[in-house]
Amino acid sequence: MTMRTKPSLLTTALLLAGAGLAVGQSAIGPVIFQPGPDLQKRYASPTPGPGASGQTKQSIIGMGKTRIDTGDPRNPFWSEPNDLSGAGNTVNADMLWDSSSKIFYVFAHTELRCAHGKSTQADLLIGLYGKKNILSKTPGSGWWVVELDQNQCQAPLPALYGCKFDTYGNNLACGRAELDPRVNDMAIVEATRF
Is 189 exposed, middle or buried (0-12, 13-18, 19+ CB in 10 A)? Predict the structure, then answer.
């Protein structure tokens, strides 16, 4: 018969610290991006802003692997200039409010910074969870993905890479990603550290 003992407080503290390090390590992807505060606030009022153009209704936003089809051709869609990261680099971004799932999508082909310092051009898709979203995610949190070729920003494979972020824009988990067409959400399928 083996005897089980309760873990000591020190053992528990060390395990929790290790778990915290593992989470912190997974929050670095091949691209450095953090949504800016102005963009993150848009979940509360996902309507066209100043300078918006091309206002229409459609179900699709993005291109290539960074493309979402919400399935509802009545969703409001528009383009407008936006500083996606809050760093002073304004780009023309496409925006779509999925009124049934309560997710705000933003797409742009833009310059991004690689984790190792170089810059690259890539397609960027951002999903922000709105109030009362169907996935019960915290409003203002969300995810972003970029489509990278092999060796672009030292990516090991040609694939989608991205991060999930909290309501403050802090990246929580990053890695190789997939878009789930059933719920139009993003999942990290392999944590990566760059």
Answer: exposed
List, as one string, the DSSP characters of 85-132: TSSS--EEEEEEEETTTTEEEEEEEEEEEETTS-EEEEEEEEEEE-TT
Using CA atoms, how far apart are residues 161 and 177, in angstroms rounded to an integer?
A: 5
Strand partners, 89: none
Q: How many CA atoms within 13 Å lie on the side-chain side of 72?
A: 15
Residue 16 scores a pLDDT above 80: no
SS3 15: helix
In degrees and rounded to multiples of 5, residue 20 shows phi and psi of -65, -40
- The pTM assigned to this predicted structure is 0.84
DSSP state for residue 4 in the 8-state scheme? P
d(CA 84, CA 35): 6
Q: Which residues contact 70 (CB under 8 A, 6 or more apart)?
A: 59, 60, 61, 96, 98, 100, 101, 105, 184
Residue 36 in this model has a pLDDT that exceeds 70: yes
Q: Would the pLDDT of 137 be above 50?
A: yes
Q: Which residue has the higher pLDDT, 190 or 128?
A: 128
